[in-house]
Specification:
The protein is an alpha/beta fold and 293 residues long. It has 2 domains: 8-23 and 80-289, Rossmann fold, CATH 3.40.50; 30-79, no CATH class. Helix content is 34%, strand content 24%. Helix 6 links the parallel strand 7 and strand 8. Helix 3 packs antiparallel against helix 4 (141-152). The longest helix has 25 residues, at 241-265. It is elongated.
Amino acid sequence: MSGTLFDEGFMSKLENMSLHFKNAVNSVYTGGRRSKSHGSTVEFSDFREYTPGDDYRRIDWNAYARFEKFFIKLYLDEKQLHTRILLDTSKSMDFGEPNKGFLAKRLAAAFAYMAIGSLDRASIYSVSEHMEHVCSGIEGRNAFYKSLERLAAVPFKGESRLFECVKDIRNIYRGDGAAIIISDLLTDSDYKAMIDYLLYYKQQIILVHILSPDELNPQYSGRVRLLDSEGNDYRDLDITPRTLDLYKRTLRSFMDDIASFCAKRGVYLLQISSDESLESILLGKGHSLGIIS
């Protein structure tokens, strides 16, 4: 799988899109989100250590005299959301025409871009048998453009262990941000336990469930051998109209169960096909859910 994640035309459209979440956040970093932790927007909230590029006028000189380090003051309307994007990079994602994995990477990049556009931080994690940081704590356009090359180069391999990997995320705090999960959910790992784990930490969650046209509406017939892309198993089947009907009913039950679970947990759900355009997903389904404008 290869190809450029974005062209300049779509980047210009992303400039006009933004993510919306229903709850306020608790965070100690500056950003563009309103916090529920304190009172008015002009009230002092917290300190953090100065980093190059910060407004030097916000340096607290009393703190410097005491600690011999530069600290800046934070105020309530500058609390920052940390958007963690969990990209399923197991082998089953590298399937379909159009390819599920390519669209998933484009979505991950788009969500990250919208997050930093709100002056928030974004991190992208590759999740398969192990979890790896693709891009950590992206802030600003320059950091985003550098992260695109690393994201495009991430391979799809191994099995999907979503819940086990998510438990390895470090520095996750209650109410500090959002988790966006992009996966086909073709896994033996307990995705429901993963979501409940993230909800325990009061993360706002968007689940993007992506399947290919071949998975949603297979066109096979006759004698076929189906191979497990994440293992060594295979199954020889005689595909008949009855077989296809049973498959479609099982798939519908699976997708309905995902939708029911997400509705009960207050999780935003996007169920998409890899042949949908990025624009229709974001400005169509995403806008209808109220998470993108």
